[in-house]
Design a protein that fits this description.
The chain has five helices and no strands.
Length: about 110
Amino acid sequence: MLVVEFFSNKAVLAIAAGVGYAIATLLMKIASEDLTTAVIGAIALVLAAVVISEILLLRQVDLGLAYIAIMATETLLVLLATYFVGQPLSGRELAGGALVLAGVAIVSY
């Protein structure tokens, strides 16, 4: 029963969806350099898990709140991931990411 409670937690579902989108983005980056059936399958599996997470989340919260939480998580992770894939962002791109996060914060209050 603990597993069911864990996966019905709103924060866990929002974070799972955001993490899933970030992972799918990294897999798409890999696919852009070396397209294989395994990478396409991995992208499909991750996005399927994201869809399930979002459906479960939308059963508990309004659409706007769900996407604000998911967008904030995904934005932070993708900004962080660019560093690890060897494509650091310029100051302008970082400022744009900060504006997205600021917008998410403003809308969430």
